Amino acid sequence: MGFAHVGVPRSGVADWFSARLANALVGNVPSAPLLEATLIGPRLRFRRAALVAVTGAPAPVTVDGAAVPPFQPVAIPEGGVLQIGTMRSGVRAYVAVRGGVAAPLILGSASTDTLSGLGPSPLTAGAELPLGNADQCPAPPADDEVRELAKNAAAGVLLAVREGRVRFLPTVEGDPAQLAGEYRVRPESDRVGVRLAPIGKPPEATRPAETMGMVGGAIQLPPDGNPIILLADHSVTGGYPVAGVVIHADLPLVAQARPGDRVRLVAVSEEEAHAALVARHLVLARVER
């Protein structure tokens, strides 16, 4: 949990699965710093040649104006310009550069926490980012089958987003029948949490809970009955009742749900939650080998 005991949230990428795929495709370690873009991608000029991969929400990707495929390593020449357009579905895209982004570390992390303001500032026009040493990275996957696996795995996440099924584990106090149902993603959603509006009768919030530690995926029930699914920049404590926790394998789906999307919360067992996470990691094991 990092520094949660002193009030610092975990932060980091919202869609952990897409981020790990991006790093794997260029030969980085899973935790290498990379860029997260929301709804509209950046325009990046490289002062030296680099190998990059773009994953996550689908968007047009070009290098020096020529279209390039996502979900595979792309060589960028010295002075080349990588541009990512508006995302057609989903919310977040990831840009990994071989060697990683050499961002300054704060409390051991290169992440930007939008809630507390800790970490590097969000990128603005003209900002410069140093890159890490690509020579120290292992060779990226050259097998077309592995690249296709990464592409299909990411497509599966986005398909699941469109289908809207998000699985959760009920808490001891939570009533799965009360929380399960259909919702729409509200426009107030951000990296702190995805806010939902019930389609039909809202779930009834129980009495206010004592302040407790929070985890990513926790489903809070405020008094208005509009659930909040906590994401990467959530506060470390909270006082709203927690009726359930989205399983870790489905957090990427929540991170890619955009305002107006339908979400259907479905209660599952611990065994199903574990099996779903194992399936995600089996894909990563093949891409990261």
UniProtKB/TrEMBL annotation:
Keywords, ordered alphabetically: ATP-binding, Hydrolase, Ligase, Lyase, Nucleotide-binding
Keyword Transmembrane helix assigned: no
Top-rank EC class of the record's enzyme: ligase
Family matches, as InterPro entries: CT_A_B, Cyclophilin-like_dom_sf, PxpC
Classification via SUPFAM superfamilies: Cyclophilin-like
GO molecular function: ATP binding; hydrolase activity; lyase activity; urea carboxylase activity
Carboxyltransferase domain: residues covered: 5-283
EC number: 6.3.4.6
Pfam families: CT_A_B
Protein name: Urea amidolyase related protein
